[in-house]
Amino acid sequence: MNLRLFTATLITGSIFFASCSDISESSVAPKEEAISSVAAAKIKALGFNPNNALKVAEGYLVEKDVLLTEEDLAKGALMFDKAAPREEQYRTTRLVTGLPRVIKVKVATTLPTIFVQATDEMIARYNSQGLLLTFQRVTSGTATINITKDETLPSGVLGSAGFPTSSGNPYGTVKMKPSTFGASPSLGFVATVLTHEVGHCIGFRHTDYMARVCGGGNEGTAGVGAILIPGTPSTIDNASFMISCAGGNVPFSSYDKIALNALY
Fold this sequence. Notes:
Largest sheet: 8 strands, mixed
């Protein structure tokens, strides 16, 4: 299978993430707005590269698939720890609290059936790890994470998501752009994209954020923006579900499992 990026540079289908209840599902691409110098400075202070950031309705899309809200920018560098960054599994300061906890996930009815099947696979992957954080798909009532359809995401982007809230809840919305996946994406690939995006929702950053495997260089400012998860390797884990690009079906690597168990 061709290498598929989790971001705007992919080939036929790939990975990456966003928050809260159903959002616009228009098929009309939005006008891309340039960010202000003030916003760029705040994004940089959070440890992210502002060069390719886009202004979107909910805030700012950075690193191709990560959503930063105005609240995140207002928090400044205090949102993240200033641990010296290397190329290992990383998390944000914000994590999901109130463990043990069941996270309810709902899939928008406007998404193709394969996204429902892939959500079940994503849930099975997380729940198989024996974590204090577990997932359950629901079809009614209020969900903690809503998986929505959004064809207005930038060209080439598979999906987007944000980081946990300051109150300890997962980011509430994962946006997916079905057209980027192509006509017949594999179940394993769609499940991997969803697993990656939900990874952002519960506090994971890209494993290779300091030197993107797909190209694009350093995603953030050296010295700011991520906390190293103990027990993960000192070199890039190319098998990680949180790497910035991957091909096909990517289950948890051995270091992913260490990272998940370290946090939850």
